[in-house]
Amino acid sequence: MPKRDNASAARRSSPGASPIGAEPAHSAGATSDVPFTSFSDTQWQAIRAIRDDWPSNIDWPEVRRQIEEAGREYSAVEHQREQRRRSAAYKTALYSARRSIIGLQFNLSRLEALAPSDLVGLPIPDLKKFEKRFKELDARYQTWSAPFSGRKSWIRERLINRLLTIWKKHLRGRLRTSKTKFQEPTGPLVRYLTLTLTAIQGESPGRHGIKSIVDKAKKRRRGNSGKPKKTGKKLRQIRQ
Asked: Reduced to 3 states, what is the DSSP secondary structure of residue 185?
């Protein structure tokens, strides 16, 4: 386990870590064009240096494997979502091409009908094969774009849930944050989510965004605890 001074220095100066509250740095392996595959050594060491007092017997290779697996799953789906977002121009061009074919067919037929009888008719190309191809492309577009309609990113929610599960189960951390003297959210969990999300997504929410994520997770887990809530009616019955 690294010494306290070394771990603190890693948190302050690690090139792979974004200072909490500062604009998150983009990971070299996590941009919209280059999907995330794994942590760099610098990024992983920054994650290891989040705490000076990790519980003993943490299986660090397994922790890294699970976080990177979650990151790769997220990145693969987000890459498809990005392609979907970029496809607006493709969709417009496809529909424009289909309309152009229909218009061309009409104009060629009209030109043929209006041509003088002694003028050799224009050869009408086989435009039906183009129309058929455009229909196939449209069908494919509808198929691969449909799962990503709407604004909410379910894959991002899944990534966050997996990171929090790893934090609790494998790193034995607690779902909580603390505050600085300036009332800014801080703590190991804030640093953990900031570093992992920055490495995987290329960016991370700010401190208050991370705190909101943690608060929502705590609220969900309290709601799923299965413990019956005491009501005023039951308390009155007990007093009687």
From this structure: strand
Question: What gap in Å lies between CA 217 and CA 223, rounded to an integer?
Answer: 10
Q: Which residues contact 6 (CB under 8 A, 6 or more apart)?
A: 49
User: 25 Cβ partners below 8 Å, 6+ apart?
Assistant: 18, 198
pLDDT, one tens digit per residue, over 172-187 is: 999 999 999 999 999 9
Give counts: helices (H), strands (E), the chain.
9, 2
CA atoms within 13 A on the CB side of 131: 11
Q: Which two tokens stand for residue 201?
A: 């997504």
Flag whether the pTM goes above 0.70: no
Each residue of 99-134: pLDDT tens digit? Answer: 888 888 788 777 777 777 666 666 666 777 888 888
